[in-house]
Amino acid sequence: MLLLIGFSVSAQEMTDEHKKEIQDRVKSKVEEFQGYLSSIVNTELSDVRRNAAKESALALFMGEGEPYYIFDEDGNKERHREVRMQISSVNSGNIGSKAVKKYLQDSYDNIHKYLKVTIQAADAVRVDNIYKVGEGQYECMAYFAQKYIAYGKDGNIRYGDFTRKKIKVHITAKEIPAVGIIFEAKLGDIYVESTEKTR
Amino acid sequence: MNTVSKLIFTILFVFLCPYYVYSQAMHALVVAATEDDRIGKGVVKNMQNMTKIIQDVANVLDCEFEFEQFGDSQCTKVDVTEWINNLDIEPDDVVFFFYSGHGGRALNDTDIFPQMCMNNPSNQALYMPVAHVENLIVKKNPRLVIIITECCNAESAGIRIKPLFAMSEEKYSSASDYDPKALRDLFFNAKGIVKISSSKPTEYSWICNTSDENGGGIFVNHFIDSFNDAVKYGKLAADWKTIFNSTHDKVYAEEIRVHGKLYRQEPISMITETKQQDKNINIVKRDKVGSLYETLQYLVDDKVSVDKRLGMINQVKKRHFTPDAKVVTLAANGITVIDYEDVDVFLKRIILSLYIENITVLNGSNDELNSLIKVQEMRK
Amino acid sequence: MKNIIYVALCLMTALLGYSQIILEDPSLSRNFRAEVKSLDEFAARFNGAESHPEISDDSLMNLQNIKALFDLEKVIGKDDRSQFTSYAMSFCDSIFTYNIRFSLCDSNVFALAKCKVKFENRDRPISLILVQEKTSDGYTRWGIAGVKGLVKSGIIKAKKFYNISPVEHEIHFMGLSDILNHNTHKAFGYRSLNNSIDQLNVFLTLIQTGLIEFEIVDNLEIYCMNVPGFIFIISEVLRESTNSGWLISDLFPATSEEKKQFINNLFIEQ
């Protein structure tokens, strides 16, 4: 399924005041994403809640995790693949990439292998400067870190890692009737650097 | 009753009776002539700003809160009268009323407060004097009545003026920004009547008729600054006379130049507020969906299980929204639109969020099905 | 009563055993805040706009921040550590003497991305050199300024020259349809002796025609020549430490001439 994303407008430039508010919003969205990731792998939570977290996480992304089109300045359709997560391991080099949608589904499915999972997140999310990349199109980066430990049914640690996640964020200025100009921030590709400590 | 029984009864009474708190609620109505050709945009800004203020107060104090917002179609004497008459007021309750729109006064009128033109400035028979609102509310015998109007006290003027004030830089509103004691002093430790209007007899009230950061009335914007000085920044004492005096001085200092002529605006007040002892407020128990505002607060209430709240999404959608409804989220500055979501995406998101304390409904109907609502988030 | 206590204890143990525990690791947040998470953050600390959280706000703050931008493990591991330290101090002096600001959008800053592409069903290593620039419309963008490795990886065969017959002109070069269409692997060998191959244009053409598929960037380094007297290289290091992220991994002295040569070598396939 390919999603069409509306044509962005040049009617309103992003002022410094807008930038600040949007950076705050990006930070909130990344914090929410962190929260959703924690919920998805939380063995204590109901499947209903974990599934809601998975759906809400996907709603944060460009194309909601599916391939999508955007219209460029000349009105041409530009096709984009689905957002992906590329994982680079300090221990074993580039592991590869997978679609974010698959990553979330795998995270949802795999918890049944473990007795419990613990996640700790760094208490800071950083959002960098917003850059204009086209008419009504802006991009920035956001960063957060997590520690993940999964315990097997025997109570021993089966898997552990420390990951630093970098998320590209796309911001599109759109004109919505009866609302005005909105600056919609959606998450894009994620680059993950991981140090595994599997026992 | 023998001695042992009496002792047991006394012990039970002391421990089982709730400790001494007042049962009190705040009832708020924000009314505005939002579709007016000349001042509609500025009036909408005023409505949003005052809605945010009063909802923030209710959220921070976590009190029983009944809130209504009447846009243009309900900006009438009939609707306001009906709302007041339907109020169920306890002796310790607070009633808050705000109006923004055209205003005027009759010749030889001895009341310094204006008549509100409501949504039909061309028909004087439909005007509603501020005094009439006061009388209706006072008859209900609440502890504190607050009536604030931004409207002319002569002929209305909706000419665009250059910006005279800057919105203060604020991140997301958080409960920790406010001083709860200051808010209690203003709303629940006060008794009497607070009546404030934006200009004195024969004066215009000036409004910037845009929806950007400069929009809204001079009076409302300075009032909010003074109010925040009292309840957020500790720069002013938390009482209505001090807030009014500060607002008055700021507004009166403005030199309003229109078509080469210099105007001034001088707010007026009648404040008979007296201070009472500080007391605890009965924390609201949310156990059902009710008005739109109540429903959204329920959905972010982390005392209720997430699974239970998720299970209510369909019910909430049917009760308050049309099938294709959208939700607009505004940033802390009240201008930048930072999200535009389908209602079910929005509801799920706020339920799952660990960071949202409250939702301020800037625009939305409690009774009708909404196709579009505007909200702001108060985040931890 | 004993049974009640026993059951209660069992329940408590069960709840504790299956509860979700968030381990307290204070170093996670501390390390994350200290880490140079992005090149934006690198620039901010280099330029004095932000600070490493554990550096005191005093007159030495800017100098300490520049020092903290070095990969200290690399420094410690150097054989000529004292000489490197001396270079580093001169480097800092140069920054403050000439009031140098770091920006990615600088003609003296290059990104070298070592990549993998797929050509004829095999993975081949190549390198891209990218520069960040501002367009006339005010947009910031990366542009591919150079490509190398197409010859070394066997994507193009350019070492040998092949002959077009000296008499071909008499038949109006009709032989070109034979040699160009039926021996395409020799194509680059038919260029004039004085023509060098522009690998950037070749690469982009191969991408456009779908003959090459871009796979992944294996390694990324940023080469900076904007500090007078020095070349420094920035790489990203992931460690659980307050010295991590984008850090200066190497530094060496270089005159202007040496910098020009270095840049040339950056673009040329060795």
Task: Report on this structure.
The complex is a heterotrimer of chains A (about 200), B (about 375) and C (about 270). Mean pLDDT of chain A is about 85; it is low at about 5-10. Chain A has about 200 residues and is of the alpha+beta class. In chain A, β10 and β11 (about 180-195) form a beta hairpin. Helices cover about 25% and strands about 45% of the residues of chain A. Chain B is globular. Helices cover about 30% and strands about 25% of the residues of chain B. Chain B folds into two domains: about 25-275, 3-Layer(aba) Sandwich (Rossmann fold); about 290-380, no CATH class. With about 375 residues, chain B is an alpha/beta fold. Chain B has helices spanning about 5-15, 40-60, 75-85, 130-140, 180-185, 220-230, 240-255, 290-300, 305-310, 315-320, 345-350; strands spanning about 25-30, 65-70, 95-100, 105, 115, 130, 145-150, 190-195, 205-210, 215, 255-260, 260-265, 270, 275, 320-330, 335-340, 355-365, 370-380. In chain B, the strands form five sheets. In chain B, strands 1, 2, 3, 7, 8, 13 and 14 form a seven-stranded mixed sheet that branches. A four-stranded mixed sheet of chain B has the order 16-15-18-17. Chain B contains eleven helices and 18 strands. By secondary structure, chain C is an alpha+beta fold. Chain C has three domains: about 25-105 and about 225-260, no CATH class; about 110-155 and about 195-220, no CATH class; about 155-195, no CATH class. Helix content of chain C is about 35%, strand content about 25%. Chain C contains nine helices and six strands, in the order ααααααβββααβββα. Chain C has helices at about 1-20, 25-35, 40-45, 60-65, 70-75, 80-95, 175-180, 200-210, 255-265, and strands at about 110-120, 120-135, 140-150, 210-225, 230-235, 245-255. In chain C, strands 3-2-1-4-5-6 form a six-stranded antiparallel sheet. In chain C, β1 and β2 form a beta hairpin. Chain C is elongated. Chains A and C meet through β5, β6, β8, β9 and β10 of A and α2 of C.
